[in-house]
Amino acid sequence: MSVTAAKGFTAAGIAAGIKENGNPDLALVVNDGPRRAAAGVFTSNRVKAAPVLWSEQVLGGGELTAVVLNSGGANACTGPKGFQDTHATAEKVAESLNTAGHDGTGGHAPGHVAVCSTGLIGVLLPMDKLLPGVDRAVAQLSPHGGEKAAIAIKTTDTVHKTCVVTRDGWTVGGMAKGAGMLAPGLATMLVVLTTDADLDSGVLDRALRAATRVTFDRVDSDGCMSTNDTVLLLASGASGVTPGYEEFAEAVRAVCDDLGQQLIRDAEGASKDIRVEVVNAASEQDAVQVGRSIARNNLLKCAIHGEDPNWGRVLSAIGTTGAAFEPDQLNVAINGVWVCKNGSVGEDRDLVDMRYREVHIVADLAAGTETATIWTNDLTADYVHENSAYSS
Amino acid sequence: MSVTAAKGFTAAGIAAGIKENGNPDLALVVNDGPRRAAAGVFTSNRVKAAPVLWSEQVLGGGELTAVVLNSGGANACTGPKGFQDTHATAEKVAESLNTAGHDGTGGHAPGHVAVCSTGLIGVLLPMDKLLPGVDRAVAQLSPHGGEKAAIAIKTTDTVHKTCVVTRDGWTVGGMAKGAGMLAPGLATMLVVLTTDADLDSGVLDRALRAATRVTFDRVDSDGCMSTNDTVLLLASGASGVTPGYEEFAEAVRAVCDDLGQQLIRDAEGASKDIRVEVVNAASEQDAVQVGRSIARNNLLKCAIHGEDPNWGRVLSAIGTTGAAFEPDQLNVAINGVWVCKNGSVGEDRDLVDMRYREVHIVADLAAGTETATIWTNDLTADYVHENSAYSS
């Protein structure tokens, strides 16, 4: 059901010909109201793609009536022409929606249309295919179109990713794409969340930032940060229900958490999903820093691939951080076995069962009470192949 | 010739049985004087192996009479017993050298013997093999033993690494090991440099720090920082020549630079050596930060492996740093072709010839006049295999 599970939204996904292989590559999500509140978070990469610059700008007013997304090209590092193309896409969406009578409660303007792109960096989009595609997507808009939209935003994703949470009379749904270049700030992804809860953009913004901080921002598949990350949350108010903040924030966090897990499970070439849990840190910041250092250690990621509980590489990664800890008080458990105690040899490493896809590493800093969990993957020959055999 | 190219040094390399495969695993370098000045730099990893803690301590006096090195075990994360083993090794070396009459200009004491270890983290050394090995190494000490010593410190190295620079009446020679876990601060390695120049430990320390800062510290094969890095410089004074500081520092830098290059060329699984040159940075620190970010980008390293001049991944890596730059003023050249100009598409990427082992990436930040060069490698399926198929 994806983004159309919440009332008040229609969506479509089509093949516009942006991808040379003919796969679906253009998605459209329209908020039919009555409300058009929206919030978004974007990549912290300082090299931002044209659609990110555009969408950050149009979100200033806290209102979006539509989101258009394309795969098959990131429109990043494409200069002034790239930005013009993004602008032209938003104009085309507004015009086409108005012409088709999808004018909801006041019509569409380019300044209320967010644009998201994903694919190869440094290549201009084929506008001669993209713009006619917008008309075809508008013609196929449907309250059941969420699934097709989720499929159209895939790049190296092997599966499309959707999630729906329904509460007392209202719903939060969403779709995500992402399989590589996954690293904090945000993980590389495009995500559109929708809700029919009746909330203003200030509440949406607060709930979305709180959710992404502990979900997408803690997915770190390969340490590589994208130029195009975008997470949008749109509210239609169509349920007529205004939930309390905590209840709503919890639902948004649940959807983000689930979609984040789906990203990790589909990470390029991965054979293991690794949950790095840092406990007893002096601060949450320390816990996150240590978790990321472990999650980005190529040697450890190779060892996990080989089902080798190589805790020495965990300690080596912890040692590169500035977090508060004493080397001779560090403890590490892998899949429940405390293989390292007090910075030295602990329980027998042969007791560690590494046969399953999920691997759980606990790093105990013995320096406080804070905790954080980072999700990552193993590093495999398939990852190398997928990222060296062709441009992506 | 390695560490015995400089007058006043003897060395040996033997198989003590620390490695299960029977390969050489114990090296000894002895300074026969008349001077016994020494300096050293060590890993910046906060989790330091026992031999690093020991050697830092004994170097406090600026004097070393011998260095004993073992491969086959890092003696890292081994607790109090590991430190006792390091201490016992130094005691054994001093005792055995004195017994054998290698007492040079005042005999040997444990407090003047540095210890270096490399191999798997978290395993105690087989002292029942190592200590008898010390006696056999002492018995084989020779002014021609440098080559054997260099061979005995190999771990996953496919070749042993040595370098000699001779100036007007004096010499700097050295040996190095290192093939993985190569990252700044220092690159993972054991290095022993020797000179017969007549210099005190203060001058040695200054020249060594200046050299490692721009050589070993800028080798970043896989972003992984070791617990055991050690670079030692010993001076015998046996040439009777006291060169000027600049001349001496240049010779030490030349040897470090050459050994650093050898480490990169032998990096685990690598098929490409990548020179990342950052130019027109606002500060040297910015240049180093950007260079490291590029050098550690797994996606770029995979692309280079696939001979794909994927400059988008270079910009994406630059964008994660806090260095001074404007995204629309960045320029990137790969093997001489400016594939990115002003943050956007530049010259035709098909012009880039990627057939050769060396790849040269220039990142122009257009923000100042400072520059730095970081060396790294591509990321390959062979690297994954080598680091997942068995513990290392």
From TrEMBL, chains A, B:
Site positions per UniProt: Involved in the stabilization of negative charge on the oxyanion by the formation of the oxyanion hole: T118, G119
Location(s), subcellular: Cytoplasm
Site feature: Cleavage: A187, T188
Binding locations of substrate: T155, K177, T188, E268, N387, S392
Keywords, comma-separated and alphabetical: Acyltransferase, Amino-acid biosynthesis, Arginine biosynthesis, Autocatalytic cleavage, Cytoplasm, Multifunctional enzyme, Transferase
GO molecular function annotations of the record: L-glutamate N-acetyltransferase activity; L-glutamate N-acetyltransferase activity, acting on acetyl-L-ornithine as donor
Pfam families: ArgJ (PF01960)
Catalytic activity: L-glutamate + acetyl-CoA = N-acetyl-L-glutamate + CoA + H(+); N(2)-acetyl-L-ornithine + L-glutamate = N-acetyl-L-glutamate + L-ornithine
Sequence similarity: Belongs to the ArgJ family.
PANTHER family the UniProt entry points to: ARGININE BIOSYNTHESIS BIFUNCTIONAL PROTEIN ARGJ, ARGININE BIOSYNTHESIS BIFUNCTIONAL PROTEIN ARGJ, MITOCHONDRIAL
Official protein name in the record: Arginine biosynthesis bifunctional protein ArgJ
Species this chain originates from: Streptomyces alanosinicus
